Amino acid sequence: MRLGLALGYWGRGPDPGHVPLAREAERLGYHSVWTAESWGSDAFTPLTWIAAQTSRIRLGTAVAQMAARSPAATAMHALTLDHLSGGRVLLGLGLSGPQVVEGWYGRPFPKSPLTATREYVDVVRQVLRRQAPVEVDGRFHPLPYRGPDGTGLGRPLKPITHPLRPGLPVLLGAEGPRNVAQTARIADGWLPLYWAPSRPEAYGEVVRKLPEGFLVAPMARVKVCDDVTEGLLPVKAMLGFYIGGMGHAAHNFHADLMARMGYEEEARRIQELFLAGRRAEAVLAVPDAFADEISLVGPRERIAERLELWRAGPVTDLLALAPDPHSLRVLAELNS
Q1: 22-26: long-range contacts (C-beta < 8 A, 24 or more apart)?
Q2: Which of 26, 74, 160, 183 has the fewest CB within 10 Å, making it most exposed?
Q3: Are residues 157 and 270 in the same domain?
C-alpha cells in the first residue's frame, strides 16, 4: 500500500505549511500529494506550485469538480501540468452535489449523474489520447455543441498540444453503489469517501471484484497523539459539516453514505442539528466510533495495529489527510 499526502483545499487563505509538508512527504518516500477544491481555492493552481518545488512525488486532484470546468478544459489543465511536472499527474474528478453545482457554479445538477460522469470522462479520455478530433453525441457534454441556441458552426477539434501521457490516470470520487460500479468500468481508480476497512459492503459488491491494477485511494486523517478522543475532534468537525451542511435535508449524499455504514439514526440527527443552526451540537453528535473507523488516530502502537486493517483490503493508496510532519514520518515508518 502506497502513501499519499492529502492537503485538501484552502480555508481563509493559503496554508504556508503545505509546500514544506509536500517536500517532507517526498523526502519520506510518499508516492503522491493531493489538492482539492470546494468554493474557494481551485485544485490545479496549488498543485502546480507544489510541482515546481518537488521533483518525484505524484500530483493528484482529489477532487477537481466537474461543474467547475468543461471536460475539455479539465483535460487541458491535466495535460499542461503533466508536461510541466514530467508526467506526475493523477486526475481525480468528482461531480459534487446540487447545492454546490447550482449554488456556486450556476449550472443545473444533472438529472442522470451517471450519464453526465460517463460523458465527461469520455471527453477527457479523447482529448488525452489525441487520436482524432473529439466528438461526443452526448446529453450533457456534446462536442461539438449542437444545441438550439448555438450557431451550428462548431467543428470537432483535437488538442494542439500532444499530451505527454495518453493514458494519464483518471480517478473518480464516487459514493453510491451504482456510481462505484460505473467507476470500476470507466476509470483507472476510485477515491472513496469515509472508507472504513471493515465495511466495504457499504459501497456495493463491486468492491470485492475490482479490475486488475485499479487504484483505490481513500483519505484518512492520520494523527499520532496520546488522547484518541481529542485527536478525533477535527474528524468530527469535518463530518458534522459534511453530513449536516453539505446538502439538503432530503438530498445529502454524505448523510446517505453514513446511513449505509450503519449510522442512519445518527446521520439524521446530525443533519437536524446542523440545519437548525446548532452546529456545535451537530459535531458532538458525530459518534466517536464512526470517526475512529475512518481515521488513524492515537499512539503509534494503536495506529500500527489499525494500519493492518487498511493493508488487508483493496486499498492501494492511503491518502493521509493534513497530518503534521511527525505523523507523516511515523506513518512512513509503519508502512515500510
Answers
A1: 22/50, 22/53, 22/54, 22/57, 23/53, 23/54, 24/325, 24/328, 24/329, 25/57, 25/328, 26/54, 26/55, 26/56, 26/57
A2: 160
A3: no
Same domain assignment for residues 152 and 256: no
Please give the residue range of the domain that contains residue 78: 2-222+299-334
Total domain count, the chain: 2
Position of cell 494519464?
Answer: 168
The answer to whether residues 191 and 92 touch, using CB atoms and an 8 Å cutoff, is yes
Within 10 A of 205 (CB to CB), how many other CB atoms are there? 11
Annotate 276-318 with DSSP letters as a single string.
TT-HHHHHHTS-HHHHHHT-EEESHHHHHHHHHHHHHSS-SEE
Q: Are residues 86 and 232 in the same domain?
A: no
* Radius of gyration over every alpha carbon of the chain, rounded to an integer in angstroms: 20
- 93 and 35, same domain (yes or no): yes
Q: How many CB atoms lie within 10 A of CB 251?
A: 12
Task: Determine the distance from the C-alpha atom of residue 117 to the mean position of all C-alpha atoms in its chain, rounded to a whole number.
Answer: 14
Q: Could you tell me the three cell numbers for 81?
A: 501540468
The total number of residues shown for the chain amounts to: 336
Sole residue written with cell 503545505: 18
Amino acid of residue 187: A
In tens, the pLDDT along 101-138 reads 999 999 999 999 999 999 999 999 999 999 999 999 99
Question: To 5 degrees, how large is the angle CA 20–CA 25–CA 30?
Answer: 160
pLDDT 10s digits, 5-35: 999 999 999 999 999 999 999 999 999 999 9
Residues 225, 299 contacting (CB under 8 angstroms) = yes
Are residues 176 and 241 located together in one domain of the fold? no
pLDDT of residue 317: 98
Residue corresponding to grid cell 495518453: 166
Looking at the structure, tell me whether residues 149 and 12 fall in a common domain: yes
